[in-house]
Amino acid sequence: MTPGARYRLLPHTADLRVEVRCADFPGLCAASVETLFSLLTDRRTVRRAARRTFSAAGATREERFHGILRKALLLFALDRFLVRDAGATMELDVVTVTVTGEPADPARHAVYREIKAVTAHGLAVSAGPSGWTGRFVLDV
User: Fold this and answer.
1) Over the stretch 20-62, which tens digit does the pLDDT of each residue have?
2) Residue 10's beta-bridge partner residues?
3) pTM, entire model
4) What is the average pLDDT value for the chain, to the nearest integer?
């Protein structure tokens, strides 16, 4: 997990509602990607064999946050790529996330659950005196 970041699951009727906290917005994006993959598999078993980079732009930080999470989930859904670590940078209205990881290997990686989508419903990003908080719902 990104240094200083932490996450928790919040009550939700059917899906997974997640809250992530971090010191800054790029860190929040990176920590949220790591959280997403922590909910998919045991990230400690994922090797740092390959690197992928993806970006999201948007008029609001919520649009950028949602875009990053959707692209991260697509890494797994389309390429079966699992993330071990993530880092992020921000330039103007574009967030760029770089991840390390490897393709899923059923012999070494147990997939805990199917995550179908990162929904826009309930998605929120806020900044406060103790850092940034992001909330999102995963359709499982």
Assistant:
1) 999 999 999 999 999 999 999 999 999 999 999 999 999 999 9
2) 17
3) 0.90
4) 92
Is 53 inside any structural domain?
Answer: yes
Give the Cα separation of 86 and 79 in Å (integer).
Answer: 17
Token pair of 134, please? 């992001």
Domain extent, residue 110, equals 18-127+134-138
Which phi and psi angles does 128 have, rounded to 5°? Answer: -145, 180
- Other C-beta atoms closer than 10 Å to the C-beta of 108 total 13
111 lies in some domain:
yes
How large a percentage of the chain has pLDDT more than 90? 81
Contact assessment for residue 27 and residue 5, using Cβ atoms and an 8 Å cutoff: yes
Strands 16-22 and 131-139: antiparallel
Query: Which region holds residue 92: left if phi is over 0, alpha if psi is between -120 and 50, else beta?
Result: left
